[in-house]
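Quality-control log, excerpt.
Job 1 of 2 completed; input and output follow.
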Amino acid sequence: MKKAVAWFSITVITIFTIYASFKMAALPSTYEGIANYMVNDTMEKTGAINAVTAIVFDFRGYDTLGESFVLFTAVSGAAVILRKKSKAKEGN
């Protein structure tokens, strides 16, 4: 029974992925809205030399801060889990 549910789930996900891929391929490949603004006006609005840096730190600053927090939390958690515990000294 578990095997049948797993195969059914994989089949449904595969069909949905293929369907979504063909639908996305049919969409026009023009920049609209905020993407157009970011591509065309980044250098003028931010004064940054590098467009990628301007987008990451000026337009998406809170997102970058959140990603940094998640990375810090993951590294801290891994350090806590993988640390070696020292044996308590006997006789104290």
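Job 2 of 2 completed; input and output follow.
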Amino acid sequence: MNEKAEARNGNERPRDDGSEDDDGEALVGECTECGQVYSLQTGADGSVVPLGTDGTCQCGNDEFEPLSGT
């Protein structure tokens, strides 16, 4: 089965670089209000959203800052 067929069936394959085959880059970041850390995903439009939520932090804030690796 090719990658496009697998995506239609909901069976996403990891890319060669180890990331998931999805719309944006996955990264770690924090809420700009309370500092809660989340796994984030960047959308095609550059927006950053926490995974596994309705798009907001548990404190109600909807702005997140990616953490740098430095």
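Post-run check on job 2. The longest strand covers residues 26-31.
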